[in-house]
Amino acid sequence: MYTYRLEESGKVVTKTCDATFAIEMTEPLAPAVKGAVIGVALNHKDLVATLADQFEDKPYVTAPKTPVLHIKTDNTHIGHGQTIKVPTDKGAVYAGPALGIVIGKTATRVTEEQALDFVKGYTVVNEVSLAETSFYRPAVKAKCRDTFCPIGPWVVDKSLITNPNNLSIKTYVNDELVHTTGTDRLVHSVEKIISYISSFMTLEEGDLIIAGTPLRDASLEIKGGDIVMIDVEAVGRLANPVEQE
Amino acid sequence: MKHARVKVNDQTLNVTVNDNNQVVTASGEVLDAGSFTWLPPCEGKMFVLAINYADHAAELSFKAPDEPLVFLKNSNTLIGHEQNTYRPDNVDYMHYECELVVVIGKEAKNVSKEDAMSYVGGYTVGNDYAIRDYLENYYRPNLRVKSRDTCTPIGPYIVDADQIQDPHNLVLRTYINGELKQEGNTKDLVFDIPHLISYLSEIMTLTPGDMIFTGTPEGLADVKPGDVVTTEVEGVGVLTNTIISESEYLASLN
What we know:
The complex is a heterodimer of chains A (245) and B (254). With 245 residues, chain A is mostly beta strands. Chain A has helices spanning 45-51, 140-143, 190-198, and strands at residues 2-8, 11-17, 37-41, 68-71, 77-78, 84-86, 93-94, 97-103, 119-126, 129-130, 149-157, 168-173, 176-182, 208-210, 221-222, 227-232, 236-244. Chain A contains 3 helices and 17 strands. Chain B has 2 domains: 1-39, SH3 type barrels (Roll), CATH 2.30.30.370; 40-253, Fumarylacetoacetase-like, C-terminal domain (Fumarylacetoacetate hydrolase, domain 2, Alpha-Beta Complex), CATH 3.90.850.10. Chains A and B meet through β4 of A and β7 of B. Chain B: Decarboxylates OPET (5-oxo-pent-3-ene-1,2,5-tricarboxylic acid) into HHDD (2-hydroxy-hept-2,4-diene-1,7-dioate) and isomerizes it to OHED (2-oxo-hept-3-ene-1,7-dioate).
């Protein structure tokens, strides 16, 4: 089962279908979910490996003890086909290919063993960001610009995903494969992330967790005129045009 | 006008609060005290300023920042007036932070400081609890410190912007069990309200209901289960909250 959202006569409606070919894709879709969006930073083994030395120095002093969370505010959320707007004067802008975990029911203090019971399904997220020069202070300026979080095209029911911790993730810019990674590179598993967040934050139906993004190297840079597409194995392909502000 | 949201028999009502501090429904009915529960008066993005009072910066041994130091909270953390906040077991230091909260009244993008005040819909009182034991130096202050369930009382109501003559000259006070612990004045904000609205609206679009917690002055203290904590902003409201233990909180979930 697939769930998606689109605008019909000025209102966003939620629809379901059994196969993705049944989804009308001629017009942009709305973000596949409506709720809080929590990202897990520094949750990619290759990224963390490049920063390992830095974490012993000021201002960090010690490596992260717990998953590092951030918030993608609602002004950032857009759907499949909607336009990512990049500023002209803030330096490079990077795609952030990631698996999105969609919560299915209220989750407070759930264990890792129970965690997937609280998941509705999965979606694709492009966690767009300016350069991440520091992880010391909250990344509001880098991560919370309007349109900086495409989500979609749809939510695939969890029953169709055998193992969320072993999905390949490919990024294409203008139809060229530029980056390959996978959820097997996550430092903290999908179950661990849900359990950790719910240990102090109640998650509600429709909330979304961005599982982790890789090191943003030059291959992930996006510019006005590009079309960026993220493909998460068995989940879907999320494509968005990029436009200069 | 003062606007609030309350729950009566599992129904959420938008209400007003009259000059006698009585809650009045849309149809004009006055609700008896005790017959309703206070809810957070607004819904939207939540921005919080760290170290935005010079005296508080000194208290934490920080230099005031060169630009606003903003962090975000998620809505899970909000509770209304006269609700309970739990203190986790085995932590050493949990403190309140009394703050003036600016509530955005209309959509704002790339707003100048000169125009910024016309985007304010109203004001309310926020208490931005923090648990210092959980601080880490990544996206500091991290969500485990600042976006915990029950850890951000807000309210009791929103006071319309035109009711507050000068939001930059309001006394803030916090009492624990009636004893004055914290006192400051919004005239000491490092970055004032126009600066904050202009700064944030350059980054992103602000929408009605978005909240800017403008920071807290010096005077922090540890709170323990059983403490009644009252945060007050002159002319805006008095927000009361009780600290409970983690086991009491867990019992309340079932």
